[in-house]
Design brief:
Blueprint lengths: L1 H9 L4 H16 L3 E8 L3 E8 L10 E3 L3 H9 L3 E3 L21 E9 L2 E10 L7 H18 L3 H4 L14 E4 L1 E4 L2 E8 L14 H25 L1 H4 L3 H11 L3 H12 L4 H18 L3 H21 L14 E5 L4 H6 L5 E6 L7 H9 L3 E3 L4 H4 L5 E5 L4 E4 L3 H22 L15 E6 L16 E5 L1 H5 L7 H15 L4 E4 L27 H6 L1 H14 L4 E6 L5 H20 L7 E8 L2 H4 L2 H4 L5 E4 L1 H9 L17 H16 L4 E3 L7 H9 L4 E4 L4 H9 L3 H11 L8 H10 L5
Parallel strand pairs: 9-10, 10-11, 11-12, 15-16, 15-22, 16-17, 17-18, 18-19, 19-20, 20-21
Antiparallel strand pairs: 1-2, 1-6, 2-3, 4-5, 5-6, 7-14, 8-12, 9-13, 13-14
Helix pairs in contact: 1-2, 1-4, 6-11, 9-10, 10-11, 17-19, 19-20, 25-26
The chain binds phosphoenolpyruvate and magnesium ion.
The site of magnesium ion has 5 residues, from helix 23.
């Protein structure tokens, strides 16, 4: 049948006449009384374009919205449906003009191309028929061939599939979430350009299998060579990200499905694309960010394989602009590495989450990246000028000359400023009036560690141990964890490192640790709560930390501690591990310091009891502020609603700092607040003398500090704390500018 279909494709006659022949042919072959083709028209409307079996008068009359009826459902979900009793399905909708009431069973498949639904192909039978999986597969294969036939055909010209470029030449502004910060200007390059499949039906299935296997072999070799060459692949944990990806290339299920599609009569490239369509359809339906990211890896491999099959591999780099802004639906990590990094200015993705592998690689490469940017795939055209604003999450397409000039200026100014801030690297971290403030960095990836060498960085104030857990596919065992922690201590070369025990749950997703759909995960079962309820997990981590720090100094910090009893319980687990090590005669750390993160407000009311029991405390202002204001830290709607520079927050912090100072317990601030110069200034004014921040922020905060008179600032802030204002940001800003403090 595929051959006949192909011949029809090549034949003469009007498009409508050919579609009519197609439905006839399919109905006969599948032995169905009805075969119909619905195509998507602009405005998300599906229209009956051809039918064998339904009333001819319904053609071009019967229309439904996406999601309306079973046909609408198939289009909305991009998923096949096979029902012996269609009328009892909750989505069944009856269109009287079709006369379809007599047909009981229905099988429908989406007609897809390049991940986009073009329409729906449906067969119906009078009796209750249980369509087999093979029959669904066969109909999907037919739909593949049909998609090729429809593309470029005049029939589709009137429909949504090729309705022209939405934005024309007008500027457009889209927004997404920031996956990696930074501002860039460049030329849009759609990923995956140039993949056009012309041969869908196989002449010789055996030869196609040989081609497929040959391309798979070539792809694996090319991946191995690329990973061996890549700097990022060699850098610590990124290697694991890439190894996981490489493993997919040998995934049995994926390989089998492609082979099956070739056996079904498709060429190797059409088979790859068929499986890719299915993968993309699953991506639309899946909410779980981890699974989505893995499907994106598979999609990426599919593209790579198509390049090998179509001989496009060699042409990839040709004609790419020197200032590429890469636009894609989603990307796998290796696919990003594949582009010449010296040409890459930024990446914008329609999907992708902060935990995706590609986001981790972008951070390592320091390429600005925006994800979850709906519409970018259709709005951006190859060659468009694009501004990627990785501070606000905005993408500006085809901006006016004035806007471009504005951004270009701010990029130059930022770079100049960055260079100026670097000038303080060799200078002491003290204020104008001699107050010393320790500046530390927050870390989580191996790539953060070289910053320990930046002049003035005293150590790691917060090492988020969950980060290496997040990029693996299973829990690292004790020896793997020991290795990671040892490498960090080695890199720190005697500088202090505060290891925070696992803080998972909330916004920190582990691929192999499914939350059970809590309504309020940030306030749910997370961090130390999990550690105390699953002590084996926490003890294994503590054991690894003790091993890694044998003979050296170890600082352990527990996250999300809500009261003193919880802190004591966590400390007791650490004590048991210490005793276990002793019993085994293992060498212990030379010094062990234990601290609590103060990010749950209740703990602040127990400081009198807490402080004598701990060696240090760290203010996690990200969580602390979200709980103080009862405002979700990840909700963009609330992002600007409350200000951390408010009398309430600063009064709270001021009291904590005074108490810690009285009792002589070191207090560090390690939330985002500490890395913004104005906020850092306020923290110092409240009494903080230790700040831990993103490595990139250190120079700027030090520049601010060196211009500051701490005694005068403290007096000023004390007055501000009594104000009834919503925010005291402006007063602090004026103070800075009046006193020549660089913020
Ligand atoms: C915080 O809550 O401020 C903090 C530093 O921890 P995290 O951002 O990892 O929750
Ligand atoms: Mg926190």
């Amino acid at each position: 049948m595929l051959r006949l279909l192909r011949d029809l494709m090549k034949g003469s006659g009007s498009s409508q006449a050919r579609l009519d022949q197609v439905v006839d042919l399919i109905a006969q072959d599948i032995v169905a009384e009805v075969c119909s083709i619905y195509l998507l028209r602009s405005g998300d409307v599906l229209e009956l374009f051809a039918t064998k079996g339904l009333k001819p008068a319904a053609v071009h009359k019967t229309r439904m919205r996406i999601n309306q009826g079973l046909v609408g459902l198939i289009a909305a979900q991009a998923r096949s449906v096979a029902l012996a009793d269609a009328q009892s399905h909750p989505n069944f909708a009856y269109f009287p003009e079709t006369g379809e009431e007599v047909y009981q069973s229905l099988m429908g498949v989406p007609i897809m191309r390049g991940g986009r639904v073009l329409g729906v192909l449906v067969v119906q039978n009078r009796i209750q028929r249980n369509y087999t999986e093979e029959e669904v597969e066969a109909l999907e294969t037919v739909a593949m061939v049909l998609a090729e036939m429809l593309t470029g055909d005049r029939l589709l010209d009137a429909s949504a599939g090729t309705s022209g470029t939405p934005g024309g030449d007008m500027p457009a502004r889209l927004s997404g979430i920031v996956l990696n910060e930074g501002i860039a200007i460049g030329t849009a390059v759609p990923h995956q350009r140039g993949i056009v499949i012309t041969q869908v039906v196989a002449e010789d299935p055996e030869a196609e299998l040989v081609r497929l296997d040959g391309a798979l072999g070539e792809m694996r070799d090319a991946l191995d060579i690329m990973f061996a060459r890549s700097e990022v692949a060699r850098a610590g944990e990124h290697r694991e990200v890439l190894e996981t990806y490489r493993m997919f290339a040998d995934d049995r299920g994926w390989l089998r499905r492609m082979h099956d599609a070739v056996h079904g009569g498709l060429t190797a490239e059409a088979a790859v694309q068929k499986i890719q369509n299915e993968t993309r359809a699953r991506m639309i339906a899946i909410k779980d960010p981890y699974l989505r990211a893995r499907l994106a890896d598979l999609d990426d491999l599919g593209n790579r394989l198509l390049h090998h099959l179509l001989g496009l591999e060699a042409k990839r780099e040709e004609n790419l602009p020197q200032d590429m802004v890469l636009i894609a639906s989603d990307l796998g990590p290796a696919e990003l590495l594949d582009y010449d990094q010296s040409r890459l200015r930024a990446v914008v993705l329609e999907h992708s989450a902060p935990t995706s592998h590609v986001a981790i690689v972008a951070r390592a490469l320091q390429i600005p990246m925006i994800g979850r940017c709906p519409g970018i795939g259709t709005e951006a055209r190859e060659g468009d000028r694009v501004i990627v604003d990785g501070e606000t999450g905005q993408v500006l397409l085809r901006p006016s000359g004035a806007v471009l000039a504005g951004f270009a200026e701010s990029i130059v100014a930022k770079e100049r400023q960055r260079q100026a801030f670097r000038a303080v690297r060799g200078l002491p971290s003290v204020s104008r009036d001699g107050a010393a403030v320790s500046l530390l960095i927050n870390a989580g990836l191996m790539i953060d560690l070289p910053h320990l060498q930046d002049g003035g960085v005293e150590g790691i104030g917060l090492y988020r141990t969950e980060v290496p857990f997040m990029i693996r596919d299973s829990f690292p065992d004790v020896s793997t964890q020991t290795e990671i922690y040892s490498r960090i201590l080695d890199a720190a070369a005697g500088k202090p490192v505060v290891f925070r025990t696992l803080d998972v749950g909330g916004d920190k997703v582990l691929p192999y640790w499914r939350g059970d759909g809590e309504a309020n995960p940030a306030m749910g079962w997370r961090a130390i709560r999990i550690g105390l309820d699953r002590p084996a997990l926490l003890r294994r981590q503590l054991r690894a930390l003790l091993h890694a720090a044998a003979g050296r100094s170890l600082s352990v910090m527990f996250p999300m501690v809500s009261d003193v009893a919880e802190f004591e319980a966590a400390k007791a687990l650490l004590q048991r591990e210490i005793e276990r090590e002793r019993a085994f005669g293992d060498r212990l750390p030379a010094e062990i310091r234990v601290g609590a993160m103060l990010e749950v407000p209740a703990l602040a009311l127990q400081l009198t009891q807490l402080l004598p029991r701990c060696d240090f405390v760290s203010l996690g202002t990200n969580d602390l502020v979200q709980f103080l204001f009862a405002a979700d830290r990840g909700n963009p709607r609330l992002a600007r609603r409350y200000d951390v520079l408010s009398p309430a927050v600063l009064t709270f912090i001021h009291r904590i700092a005074s108490q810690a100072a009285e009792q002589g317990v070191p207090l560090t601030a390690c939330g985002e607040m500490a890395g913004h110069p104005l906020e850092a200034m306020a923290l110092i004014g409240c009494g903080l003398r230790r700040l831990s921040m993103a490595p990139q922020a250190v120079d700027q905060v030090k520049t601010m500090l060196r211009g500051l008179d701490v005694a005068s600032l403290q007096g000023f802030i004390n007055q501000l704390l009594t104000l009834p204002d919503h925010s005291i940001r402006e007063q602090l800003r004026s103070y800075a500018s009046d006193h020549d403090v660089t913020i």
